[in-house]
Amino acid sequence: MSEPRELGPDATDTASDQELLAAHVAGDPDAFGVLFARHRDRLWAVAVRTMGNREDAADGLQDGLIAAYRRAATFRGDAAVTTWLHRVVVNACLDRIRGAKVRRADPLPDDLEEYRDRGSAASATPATADPADLSVRSERRRLVVQALGELPPEQRAALVLVDMEGYSVAEAAQVLDCAVGTVKSRCSRGRARLAEVLAPLLSEAPGDPGHPRSGNPPRLRSVESTDAPRGPPSET
Amino acid sequence: MPRDPELSPSEEQVRRLLADARHIEPMPDEVVARLDGVLTGLAAERRDVDHADRSAAIAADLAAARRRRTARNLLVAAAAVVAIGVGMNSVDLTVSGDDDGSAATSDSGGAAADAPPAAQAERDGGARHQIPEPQGSLEADKDGVTGSLAFAEPVRLSSDRFGAQVRRLHTSTRTITMADSVSPATDGLFSLSRSPLRAGCSTRGWGEGLLVPARYDGQLGAVIFRKATGETQVVDLFLCGNDEPTRSTTLPVR
């Protein structure tokens, strides 16, 4: 980390992430706000997908924000500042999930309502997309997000970082503070589980998930128990 | 998204589904406002903590200054005792005048009476008197008495000049009584050192006051300066093995 110093009002806009964090540690009252504003949308996306809904995401992000603000001096500089921020936020979200503080029964992630109207900005616009395609896509997203929410939190967080946010496995390992092999394993198991649950969405052609079948959407299977089936009580 | 050759076709499709379900909306305004409020609160909290830290630092500085003052007072008292030691031991307390004579007539006592003892000791610089090496250090002794400098030998007093000698001693001990770092022992007596009295001399029954070990006509004892009352102060002389004062005199408090 560079030498801690406070930044002037103009310097905060051009300062690097590390400089902003160092300035915050040195007592600059504005540096952390600038740093957080730079990364908040991506942190928000991770939080929403990890938590499954906006309210819990806001709570988790707030926990992470407070933790990062107060623990900034512990940043060792062995990773990018944005990686460290993601780590703090993801840990805060996972802590909330483990503490059963999340709103578990959310039938429809809020943002998917927006997609229903607008579609994905990455590939379609309301002006050009076929309304039928938008509807199909929105439904598919809903199913994917719902299935993702059924995964164990650690597998979910790994898939959100690697497959949704596009982090490399190595970067995700830094965020999740675990080994690269652990991230690979979590992603693999998570994808395998999703492949089962989302089988009706998967086309036979590799890499080309097709439209959902006509009629009612496929029913998601509940999480199976890993315990051995219980036999009838023995008669003694 | 490039295809990972390690992934099975179904896993690859899952990966594409997940990428397509990525959250791309910016943080809602209400959440931005909420988190901005949290940041404002954190900044205010930080200012308060910094302010408290600064206040604590100022308090620590004041405490350190107090300690320095106390140490300075103790050193002044120690220097005074050294001067007394010089006055009482290296130089005979014998005054040139009668018992009721003025202390100003004595050689060394007059100088000690007219000038602060520490200044006197410094001014003398050992030219006229050999300043004895301090005995011990500025630490609490077994009696809980702070300081153990000087008085390697008891102050020598004589019965025929007791009054004048005590008046000179009184002038010097006023500096000692002002040193707030000198605390009373369990018997209520203040002292900078009782080592001359340790050989079986009990102070029981001697009452409260500032104790100065003394040898009165060759007998071991101590002069006790009582607490000043109004404009006068009583000084008692006790001899070891006796709980009644052998001599007593009243001095004006200047």
Number of contiguous helices of chain A? 10
- What percent of residues of chain A adopt helix (DSSP H or I)? 55-70%
Distance between the termini of chain A: 70 Å
Q: How large is the share of residues in beta strands of chain B?
A: 5-15%
Uncertain parts of chain A:
114-126, 204-208, 210-216
- Write down the domain tally of chain B: 1
Mean pLDDT over the full residue set of chain A: 79
Any overview of this molecule?
The complex is a heterodimer of chains A (236) and B (254). With 236 residues, chain A is mostly helical. Chain A has a domain at 1-106: Orthogonal Bundle (Rna Polymerase Sigma Factor, Chain: A). Chain A has helices at residues 11-14, 17-26, 31-51, 54-70, 81-98, 110-118, 131-148, 153-164, 169-176, 180-197. In chain A, helix 3 runs antiparallel to helix 4 (54-70), helix 3 packs across helix 5 and helix 8 runs antiparallel to helix 9 (169-176). By secondary structure, chain B is of the alpha/beta class. Chain B has one domain. Helices cover 42% and strands 13% of the residues of chain B. In chain B, strands 1, 2, 3, 4, 5 and 6 form a six-stranded mixed β-sheet that branches. At the A-B interface, helix 3, helix 4, helix 7, helix 8 and helix 10 of A face helix 1 and helix 2 of B.
What is the element layout, followed by pairings?
The complex is a heterodimer of chains A (236) and B (254).
Chain A lengths: L10 H4 L2 H10 L4 H21 L2 H17 L10 H18 L11 H9 L12 H18 L4 H12 L4 H8 L3 H18 L39
Chain B lengths: L8 H12 L8 H62 L16 H8 L2 H8 L30 E3 L4 H17 L10 E2 L18 E8 L2 E7 L6 E8 L7 E6 L2
Parallel strand pairs in B: 1-3, 2-3
Antiparallel strand pairs in B: 3-4, 4-5, 5-6
Helix pairs in contact in B: 2-4, 2-5, 3-5
Question: Short description, anyone?
Answer:
Chain A is mostly helical.
Q: How would you describe this structure in keywords?
A:
heterodimer, A: 236 residues, mainly alpha, Rna Polymerase Sigma Factor, Chain: A, 57% helix, B: 254 residues, alpha/beta, six-stranded mixed sheet, 5 helices, 6 strands, 13% strand, rod-shaped
